[in-house]
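quick one before i forget lol
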Amino acid sequence: MQFSNVTAVAKANVYFDGKVVSHSILFASGEKKTLGLIYPGTYHFGTDKAEIMEITDGQCTVVLDGQSNQQAYAAGTKFSVPAKSGFTITVSSGICQYICSFIG
């Protein structure tokens, strides 16, 4: 996937001692996305705005806050996270790559 006419923010967003790393891209419309990598492990993220997480490579499992069921996602799939909530994501092996779109 490729994005045209965007501004890329060079400074990385680094979480969990470098095991989750992303870069922000900004669109002329004001839309913001992050492109990132998740290394093996289990991580919890809180959300302010609603998000759509699109998996572009690798695989992971996700549990949304307030739920107990774990859902598997692979390249070409996506999941939504409500605003003011969060999710726990687990990568068992390899690297999971994603695009996060912020909604609203």
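fyi The chain has a mean pLDDT of 96.
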